[in-house]
User: What shape does this take?
Amino acid sequence: MRTGDTDAAMRARAGARRRPGRPRGGEPVIDRERLLDHAEDVIRRVGASASIEAIATGAGITKPIVYARVGGRSELSTALASRLTDRMTAASAAAVASAPEGRPAMRAMIRASLEIVEAHRELFLYVTAGSTPDDRLALAEMIAEPMSADLTRWGEDRGVSAESAEAWSWAIVGMLNLVSLWWVSGRDRSAEELSDQLADLLWAGLDRTAT
Assistant: This one.
């Protein structure tokens, strides 16, 4: 040790000798989005029962890093649910934009949502089980808000109030969530068949209610 060295100076030199991009302990630096990518990959392979430890191992890090970057099971579920909700919203918007107005648009929206659930079955089950009620409500709002706006525009010349459109949008989102849970648990029909059946129910109510 050199004369006049302080503890702070020694720690600074030790830090400079560490590999760049690695924190104390030699663990790799991983940002939040990359960690969520790894989490999705592990859940897809292991299933909805994937543990924080399995996700950490899949990312090549330890559990404390997962907690530091994202949080525990609930926070991780909410972060992944937000990703899944974004995909549903984008797919539904694209499907509705390319479909004729009315029942075809309703059917296209439902089918697009179901196809995202089908493509990410284990992720859907993981986030549904792990998010808190408040977080599930906030995430549902991400889908219900644009749907409410669409229903409001559709109902402007049909005597449908904005308040009714808002209530209907939340009812549709809630129905789709529970139907999706039921569907992925047994799935005895295709997304196309189920979207037809649900569109029959929803459009019959919407079209009859509008005056």
